[in-house]
Amino acid sequence: MIAQCLATRHPERVRGLALGCTNFGRGSVLAEPRVQDLLRMMPSATMDAREVARRQEELYYMPQFRSSQRALIDGLFEMVNRNPTPPHAVQGHLKAMDAFDGNAALGTLRAPTLVITGEGDPLIPAENSRLLSRRIRGAKLVVLEDASHFFWIEKPKETADALIAFFAGIE
Questions:
Q1: I want to staple 60 with a disulfide (CB 3.0 to 4.6 A). Which of 84, 118, 136, 150 is the partner?
Q2: What domains are there in the chain, each with its CATH number?
Q3: Residue by residue, what is the 3-state secondary structure of 32-46?
């Protein structure tokens, strides 16, 4: 969403743009209410940050990845939680996401744009990427099968290949 704003407000500073698992505000396809509730879950006296993260895992990774890559996910969790994001920052992030509306500006994007997402993303449904790519003139769409919100972790080679090929083609 930040990249969309930068590219529409300062097009002279953007030679190429990659938008991953994002929406565009008004008109976007919303996640199911249960998914939205999970995203907004915060640590409390009855549920620590570790439990919140475990419950939210289904938002970020496909089921087969969660079962086959348990050690990787646990390692990423440990790394992220060495310096956890303060709750007020998480709440501010959620508030900014809810308020964002870049829909009207999409038609003004001039930078070559790659839109990439995981087909199984419950948080930002892949239909948003399809809509986004149709609203941005000349955008290229890549939808990764068997990938969710953290598609770059689940499909690192495919993600890297798509990004490298896209940016290598920009003059």
A1: 150
A2: 2-168 (3.40.50.1820)
A3: CHHHHHHHCCCCCCC
